[in-house]
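Replying to the earlier thread about multi-chain prediction with a worked example.

Input:
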Amino acid sequence: MKEIQEARIKRYFIDACKEIIRGEGVNSVSVRTIAERAGYSFATLYNYFKDIKELFIICVDEFLLESEEFIISRNIKSTGKQAILDKSIAFTMFFLQYPSIFKLVFTEDIRELRSQTTFKDKLDGIFSNLLSSDWNELVIENKKIKEELIKNTIYSSLLLYLNRFSPKEYKTFIDSITQQIKYILSFDDI
Amino acid sequence: MKEIQEARIKRYFIDACKEIIRGEGVNSVSVRTIAERAGYSFATLYNYFKDIKELFIICVDEFLLESEEFIISRNIKSTGKQAILDKSIAFTMFFLQYPSIFKLVFTEDIRELRSQTTFKDKLDGIFSNLLSSDWNELVIENKKIKEELIKNTIYSSLLLYLNRFSPKEYKTFIDSITQQIKYILSFDDI
DNA sequence: TTACAAAAATTAACAACGTTAATAATATTA
DNA sequence: TAATATTATTAACGTTGTTAATTTTTGTAA
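Result:
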């Protein structure tokens, strides 16, 4: 009973934080803005979270889950290589929609080593879940390293596009990712 | 004469900033710590830079040049594919040596669109300069997209390793990059 | 219901941040 | 030497994350 109430209040803070990031952006997020939206004083946050980074880590986890749900909700009908490409682009789109989510998830300084160690596992899990059936359809080699190359292409392209404004044009950005993924998938064709 | 003196004082601030980033790390950098090391009051910085981001952008540019010099200084003797691999690893090593430099160059929030637009051009220029002769030795196709894949592999791997502590082991990290670059270079072999 | 103890939430306060305005110190020129 | 322009400094503001002290609320026993 005590735990339920505590979880409920934690939820208010988590949702407030996520809302601000989605709306005003990660630069508008602060202990005070979060608490205000949650309906509490800023100091109350510290009764439920060790510090603001602990809250951020929870948001990172939930945003990652949302990215997976986002791709599933797109109901992609294609199969094989085309499905891998489509889902990769969908994943990219999720972060394009909310650049601040990318910033929080990938670049924000949240060094909570306990949770951090599994970050990449979670990321890998998303791709693994989404793409495993598509990979199985294909008769190609080195699927694992191909998936790694695709992921790195996406992360790096998002980093440069959202953080360093390169390329300037959206179309150039998408075309570049598409071309690279297609190229990766074209290797070792049997 | 006026310009020389002004450039000289700007240099004090730039060098102070770079020193702190190399030494104590980017988290220790502030208007006050920079000015203190430069031998001036914190407000003096604003007589020479619009804001701290303008100073950061200059440091980003200089660190990028340093990364190129670092690779050249390694005096890599290999040729062809091996040279491309060796230089790629050397580039990675530069940022491993100073994680804060990676943070500043790739993830820090320095939205000065004027200068930002050419950031990727500078990055591309480094690789282009260093690798062009090595590429010329090779009789393979799609050199441009291969170089892009290699760069994205490096940036993304550094991002996850330095920012999200994945993988945990240094050796795993280097092996993964090496394997991916070798794989990219193995395509289209003639 | 009343009195007390435990829990939760709030206000006050601190040090550090980037930045600007007002002031002091220094150079330059007449 | 006196007046002016330039450069540097201190004071101050609003914001940040965080902690301590304090108030408010909740739960329990008489």
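Chain B touches chain A at residues 27, 106-107, 109, 111, 113, 116-117, 119-121, 142, 145, 148-149, 151-153, 155-157, 159-160, 163-168, 176, 179-180, 183-184, 187 (CB under 8 Å).

Feel free to reuse this layout for your own posts.
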